[in-house]
Structure formats: structure tokens, C-alpha cells
Amino acid sequence: MADDMGRRPEDDEMDDLLDGDEEEDALFKARMGVVNAFLGYWKHALGVAGLVLVGAFVYGTWENHVVDTQRQIHARVAKVDRAVKRIASADGATDPLGGFTDAARTALLEQAAAMEAVAADSEGAGAAYAWVSAADLYDSADDDASAARCWASAHGLALPGSLGWAAANGHAMALSDSGDVDGAVAAVAPFAQVEDGGTLAEEAQLVTARLYLDAGRTAEGIQALESFLSLFPASPMVTQVNAELESARAAG
To answer: Phi then psi for 94, rounded to 5 degrees?
Structure first.
């Protein structure tokens, strides 16, 4: 009985949301733990599988910023996440080509709007997480304009680390789709700083090369790939980059 003293109704709501269904809670936390899920993102490559993995890959960052005053925000995020899981896994959610049906896209758009509202009510890492999640949902529902708006909002927070990279990368893809290749390259450039090192710098350098190559700017793409090999000779992506470099040279 003493353990229940001082509890509020919203505490019980949070318990129901986060602990009430072990199977859904396990999926929620698993999604949150996929740290590198977004790092392999390339435009139009997410699809259904991407929707299940992306969005919540930065749970550790998010959880560290969940304090008492943010519990209701966290509850709203959890509600949207669970609703998306149900939509994506429902019978008839996908068409024969593996994309979402019109009904599923309509449902996803509703959840994207809900997540965007969470982002507008949040700040810091929590806001960035919600903007990234909303952008991903809009992308999955083929609403490019709304996705671009959310990517820009997430990137505008200028956060470091994996969450900041997700925002910068997504914004870069949206800018590239609109034809602004230089803007896209500028969006990921801060993460390509060699002195910071690590996987994000490697990813940013590789994304830069792909942005140029995708835009038909082959010489600049080749230069970026060559720079990658010079800067990161011990990277586990060296074999992949060498293959892309060979292909770009052949195409050029």
C-alpha cells in the first residue's frame, strides 16, 4: 500500500502504456534499441520494414531526457508507436508490391500528424525524436511535403550524435529530392568532420558521395569516395566504397 502513496492518475496511465502488454512493450523497446537502423537509410528505401525499425532507434538518448515533467509527452509517443505497429502489421496493410495500401497510408498520416503535434509540444532531444519519427511516418505514407517540413524542423535543432545525424540525413534526402544538392551536402557536412571520427563521420562522407552521384555530379562523387578511402582506411565499409568507386569511374 505504501508503494502506491503519492501516485497520480497519469502514473497509472504510463504503467498501462509501457508495461501493460509484454509483447508490444518488447517490440517498442527493440525498435528503440536499433541504433544503426537509420544509418543505412537511402531515400525511398525504407518501405514497410524500415517503418518497423526506424524512428525509435535512439531510445537511450530519449530515455535519458524523460523526466517527470515529460511523462505525458512520453506517453503520447508510446501511443503513436503502438498504433503504427498495429497499422503496419494488420492484414491488408500492404499491396502486392509491398507498399502500403491507401487505407494504411491514411491511418499512417493520422499518426504522423499526432507525432508532429508531440514534437511541437516538446523541446530538445524529445522534440528532435518526435520530429524524426513524424517525418518517417509521412515518408512512409508518401506525403513528401510534410516529411520535408518535419525533417527541416528536426535538423533545425542542431543536435549532435545519432539523433542529430538522423535529422541531418533525413533533411539532406528531402533537399536532394527537391533538387537542392548543395543544400543537402551542407546538411550532412558537420558530421563529416574527421576530427570527430567514428561511424557518423564515415556515414556522412559516404552520403556526401552518394548525393553527388545521384545528382549526376560524378566527378564530385568520385572525389568524395576517394576522400573516404584516404580518411578512413580501416573502415569496415572500405570494400563497399571501393565497389562504388569502381562503378562510378566506369559510369563516368
So the answer is: -120, 155
Nearest to residue 189, comparing CAs of 215, 169, 174, 162? 169
Structural domain 179-252, CATH architecture = Alpha Horseshoe (1.25)
Q: Is residue 168 a contact partner of residue 39, using CB atoms and an 8 Å limit?
A: no
Question: Which of the two residues, 4 and 211, has the higher pLDDT score?
Answer: 211
What is residue 100's DSSP assignment? B
Domain layout of the chain by residue ranges: 2-160, 179-252
36 and 57 Cβ atoms separated by less than 8 Å = yes
User: Which of 6-10, 46-50, 69-73, 220-224 ranks highest by mean pLDDT?
Assistant: 220-224
Cα distance between residue 131 and residue 217, in whole Å: 31
Question: Which SS3 state, helix, strand or coil, does residue 180 take?
Answer: coil
What's the predicted TM-score (pTM) here? 0.74
CB atoms within 10 A of CB 30: 13
